[in-house]
Structure formats: structure tokens, C-alpha cells
């Protein structure tokens, strides 16, 4: 029998966050139109090609910026609770919060302010009820994507982090610290904060109180993905996750990255995804997100897939 040594590995931070959504046009109007993120990929859910998989992010959708959705008629709304990302936190440049407070109010999005770890955050919800936050941060590269009045000086840069809701917070915190390799850096207002090394998607707060299990559906997050540097690193991650007693899936090809998944013991679905190759793999960088892109194994069914998907457009909402 081979000797087993537990590897210590550290993720750089959040790779992407994927949520459910309802109406596709409302989803695109909110994230591309109001929040001004770039739609960097329109494709389908590779496991269920009857629904879109839309990726929004900075100009290239680089790791740490990609918010993704499965917009679909799910039949029922989700319920926020344990085993989910409770709040998805986006970062904007210093001084940009008043701009966003005005903009959200202009689009009839109710906004409230909260404080955590000495920072002010704007809290609001998307059209499906998904809980979001904006925080101003000095670190992390600015987005080069401009849309309407949104310029690099106020544009969302990517994720500041996330608030995790767990059915077993001690287990979730253990997984963050000892499996994903984040550093525990403090506690404030019932939250425990963990830090990863990247400039974006690097501050994760765990709600310290256990919460009853949520239910998936529009208005909730489906999974949170962490960064692996490349395929070799991901294979090490897979061994590391298994050594810690979790049951990772095989590594699957998501076309723009490869992925593995496992559920941590507080109920949250974790993914580990590679930084490369990224969204310019199958489209020129200047045309990202304009056409429906399919992985080669779905190309023979393109006509049938396209017919089943509702049309939508990227536009500035009224
Ligand atoms: Zn994912």
C-alpha cells in the first residue's frame, strides 16, 4: 500500500460563481445592462443543453470575475439557506459606491447599506431575488469593459468575495482552511473571514451560525468554483480533496476550463476549475458573447438546441 501524505494546497480564490435564474432577458438586462458586466459567453448548460449557460465578467471574463447563470423556467423559486452562497460580493474601485447607489435606485433596485470588517457594502437583489453586495476595494485589476455611463473608474472589477451559508459552519470553515488553503483572518458581526491570495475573489466570509438547508432554484447560487492554475494542478487538487475524505467527481471538460466538483460537509457544492484556456478559446476576444457557442459534441444538434432556446439581446434597459 502506498503511503498517503495529505498535501497542503492553496487556491488563489474564486474562479466563478454559478446561480439559477428565471427569465433570460431579465437576467441579461440586470447583469449586462444595469451592472454593466460583459456577457463573455453564451452557451448551454453542458449537462442540460435545453437551457442557456450565460457567463458575465470583466472584458475577458477572467478567473475571479465570472458570474454565470442557468436561466430557465425552473417551475419554482429557490429558497436561500444553508449549503449555499448567501451573498455574492462584487468589488468596485474606491469611491464608486455612490455612483452605484444612484444607478441601482434609478433602475428601481432597492439598496441598503451594511458594514462588515470595517467596510461599507451596498446590498441589493437581482430580479430573481439573488442576494448581492458591492464593496469598494483598492486591490485587483480594474475592468476594461465600458457600457453606457459605466467606465473603468466605476465598473465592477469582479468578485470581492462571497458570504457562505452553511448547515455545519465548523465543517465549512475546516474545508476552506485545510482543504482549499485559505487563511482565517478574523471575526466580525457573526461572520468569520478567510483570505486567499488573488487580488479579486479573495475574501470569503462564513456565517458562523448554522442555517437550515436552502433549496435550489431562481434566486439562489448553484455552486462556487475555486481556481486551479492548470490541469496538472487540478489533478493534484483532486488527490488532495480525496485524501481529505471528500468524493470529487472525475475531471470534466467545460470547454473554457476543466472542472471537478465535490460537496463540502456544510452542504455547499464546491467546484475546482482551471484558469486556462478561458473564453477566447472559441471566439475572437472582440466578439465574445455575441453568438451561441457550443462544444463540438453538441454541434451536430445545433439546430434543435437553438430552436428550443428563447432569444434575448444585450441592451441598455429603460
Ligand atoms: Zn461552475
User: How many domains?
Assistant: 1
SSE sequence, one letter per element: EHEEEEHEEEEHEEEEHEEEH
- The number of helices is 5
Indicate the CATH class.
Alpha Beta
Strand content: 25-35%
According to DSSP, the number of beta strands is 16
Low-confidence stretches: none
What is the fourth-level CATH superfamily? 2,3-Dihydroxybiphenyl 1,2-Dioxygenase, domain 1
What binds here, in terms of ligands, is:
zinc ion
Q: How would a textbook summarize the main sheet?
A: 8 strands, mixed
What is the overall shape?
Answer: globular
Mean pLDDT over the full residue set: 96
The third-level CATH topology is 2,3-Dihydroxybiphenyl 1,2-Dioxygenase, domain 1
Rg over CA atoms, rounded to whole Å, is: 19 Å
Quaternary structure: single chain
Q: Helix proportion of residues, in percent?
A: 10-25%
Largest sheet strand order = 2-3-4-1-13-16-15-14
The assigned CATH architecture is Roll
**Gap between N and C termini:** 66 Å
Structural class: alpha+beta
Short recap of the structure:
With 318 residues, this protein is of the alpha+beta class. The protein has helices at 24-34, 97-106, 169-179, 231-243, 302-308; strands at residues 14-21, 38-45, 48-57, 66-71, 84-92, 112-116, 119-125, 131-136, 158-165, 183-188, 191-195, 203-207, 221-228, 252-253, 258-263, 269-274.
Structure overview:
The chain has 5 helices and 16 strands. It has a single domain, classed as 2,3-Dihydroxybiphenyl 1,2-Dioxygenase, domain 1. The protein is α+β, with helices and mostly antiparallel strands. It binds zinc ion. The site of zinc ion has 5 residues, from strand 1 and strand 13. Residues 16, 18, 223, 225, 271 line the site of zinc ion (ZN).
